[in-house]
Amino acid sequence: MINQKNVELGRKRSSIRELFEYGKKRKAEIGEDKVFDFSIGNPSVPAPAEVQNALKEIITQTDPVFLHGYTSAQGDFSVRKTLADYINLRFKTALTADCLYMTCGAAASLTITMNALLNAGEEIITVAPYFPEYKVFCEHAGGKLVAVESEDGTFQLDLKKIENAINAKTKAVLINSPNNPSGVVYRERDIKKLAELLEKYSEKFGGRIFLISDEPYRELVFDKDVTVPYVMNYYAHSIVCYSYSKSLSLPGERIGYIAVSNKMKEFEEVYAGVCGAGRALGFVCAPNLFQQLVKKVYDKTSDISIYKGNRDRLYSTLTGYGYTVVKPDGAFYLFVKALGGDARAFSERAKNFELLVVAGDDFGCAGYVRVSYCVAPDMIERALPAFKALAESYGK
Amino acid sequence: MINQKNVELGRKRSSIRELFEYGKKRKAEIGEDKVFDFSIGNPSVPAPAEVQNALKEIITQTDPVFLHGYTSAQGDFSVRKTLADYINLRFKTALTADCLYMTCGAAASLTITMNALLNAGEEIITVAPYFPEYKVFCEHAGGKLVAVESEDGTFQLDLKKIENAINAKTKAVLINSPNNPSGVVYRERDIKKLAELLEKYSEKFGGRIFLISDEPYRELVFDKDVTVPYVMNYYAHSIVCYSYSKSLSLPGERIGYIAVSNKMKEFEEVYAGVCGAGRALGFVCAPNLFQQLVKKVYDKTSDISIYKGNRDRLYSTLTGYGYTVVKPDGAFYLFVKALGGDARAFSERAKNFELLVVAGDDFGCAGYVRVSYCVAPDMIERALPAFKALAESYGK
């Protein structure tokens, strides 16, 4: 018998992927434009023009032995230096190149960080709703993911519930803001309180509790008055897991980084753990061409005004139809209360209207569905009558 | 305390990296051209022109949303189909696209395969000399690496020693041919005997023993009469871990694949395990641009005649100076008997002549040093007097 845990993970698609595959089949049956697929978080807005230009320039002007050669495992020094300087400029931190470790995207950032921190049986607390793969990553690293509920009706941090979950086995709290799937940005005052809590219980239990911030959606914030707090400025023992997948529409290229706060006493040890975990998991280095790319376009994003337009159109129309939705500040998801209360039943019924929305149960939050609005605006227009008819079928 | 095993891995550089870093320092001190750095396996021959041309064409002619978007976790179907067809053409196999799983290079191919197969405490047998990271990868996957000696004086498989090492905990035998660091290509007759052995003991112990073939150097073979047997044609329970790092000089871009033989009864389970392990380790998908690249240049290689020239020049000259070397059939390494018998002492003394060669102890083979000849031919010419003087210092 080979490793059955991994066999099972390989056999069982995530419910997101399951629905996405159903959508592909259904489109083949009735036509691409007849199916309204809100299942998957694959950016629909192309990478900005700067990406193509920079790629062409790098490929034609760089010595191929350097360009396609190994970088150090942490990533090319000049790339890390450029990104550290930019973080410092934006967030008034004092990171050096050696605080950064380039990765193959957000998932790699997370698995490496978890493997660096966790000893067998230790726990990571996260806040529901949360990205389902957290559980897979954490368990493979030998840990246990403990999900606590968010504040009722807002999806903000519920500090009391986090406090109740902390115990001597807690190694880290993992947050994701802007949040997948709720789109909520956690409030600064709650991040402050969370930092106090982690300080208090690190002392109480005599073992450091780290704060991991998963930030693939940091740049996808739609309103000027919303800022996403930079966790290192509130808690010294912070690790930021960043990715360019969504901000630059490069999810298939796998490029991101881990930034370890140099304000923490254990910095050298934690960074070494990150290097060791990256090595043991087989990452070697992040793709060099894309390291060189982000060095050039680190401050660019795709045209996120399209996502903002989608959010505004969907939010105002769906609430008008009688759906209950917390208005998302960022990312590209709406987390909609399932009519009738049962999210799986709602998602199934939605299929009758050719609407594909993911039941929130796998996000640790029953009674909601996720609507990914990283789609073409005209699909939203075509889908609205289906959303309306679905609501009416529930007597709205 | 965070995970100390990973901290230690991160703190302790491999001896290869250690020497490479020393070389960089030394070059800064006495001049780039005065240090003869044979420490690292970073291809010195640039990627073939077809790579740059294909990259430019792909970037300018492909829809960026597709090009930079997620592929399925296994890799883009048309990429896998193209590569499977090519393997079938070359090796008379009957693989389908669904036998292949695209990876971020050879290291990822290995960690994913090991995590797919191993249960805690199970063993993988490999043959010394072997690539030192095998141990790191295997232990992280919960297994134990058991290294057996190769045939005395030839570095070929010693089937008696492999047989003696097989027991009820053996999950796989891992071979690497052409071999890093010896350059040896394992003989077809020994692969046949190895297959018989694995068949016999799989039955005897009632648990399947797999054959993992790590093949980053497959295309780097210098003589027409040398062929590298394709293991699937000898043993149904074979898994090939392939990489384009060395053949196309793309080590920093991380692209390769796992091919699971569809002749094995447990195919569906093993492939699912590969998918599950890739997911749990955080790989998501292999970089899409480089997937599309290898679809176009799968049958190209860098100009390996340069490596052949280096091999011939170094082999004939060093043996003339009194060194003992098994002539390598492939890869780009010479494994040279350390004069005086102690490889670490020899490697240290070599530094006095500004020669950087890696002691073989970490390759599980004391008494030898590895000379990486993926270097500029003119550096070899400049280094020859140093090799001569070093030999003379041992009384040769």
Secondary structure elements and their pairing?
Two copies of one chain form a homodimer.
Chain A (H helix, E strand, L loop, with lengths): L3 H8 L3 H16 L5 E2 L11 H13 L2 H4 L9 H15 L8 E4 L1 H13 L5 E6 L4 H8 L3 E6 L9 H7 L4 E7 L11 H18 L4 E6 L22 E6 L12 E5 L6 H15 L6 H10 L7 H16 L12 E5 L5 H10 L2 E2 L1 E2 L8 E5 L4 H17 L3
Parallel strand pairs in A: 1-10, 3-4, 3-5, 5-6, 6-7
Antiparallel strand pairs in A: 2-8, 7-8, 9-12, 11-12
Descriptive report:
The structure is a homodimer of 396-residue chains. Chain A is of the alpha/beta class and 396 residues long. Chain A is built from 14 helices and 12 strands. The first copy, chain A, has helices at residues 4-11, 15-30, 49-61, 64-67, 77-91, 105-117, 133-140, 159-165, 188-205, 267-281, 288-297, 305-320, 343-352, 377-393, and strands at residues 36-37, 100-103, 123-128, 144-149, 170-176, 210-215, 238-243, 256-260, 333-337, 355-356, 358-359, 368-372. In chain A, the strands form 3 sheets. A 7-stranded mixed β-sheet of chain A has the order 2-8-7-6-5-3-4, with helices on both faces. Chain A has a 3-stranded antiparallel β-sheet with strand order 9-12-11. In chain A, strands 1-10 form a two-stranded parallel sheet. In chain A, helix 7 (133-140) links the parallel strand 3 (123-128) and strand 4 (144-149). In chain A, helix 5 runs parallel beside helix 11 (288-297) and helix 12 (305-320) runs parallel beside helix 14 (377-393). Chain A is globular, with a radius of gyration of 21 Å. The model of chain A has no long low-confidence stretch (mean pLDDT 96). Chains A and B meet through helix 1, helix 3, helix 4, helix 6 and helix 7 of A and helix 1, helix 3, helix 4, helix 6 and helix 7 of B.
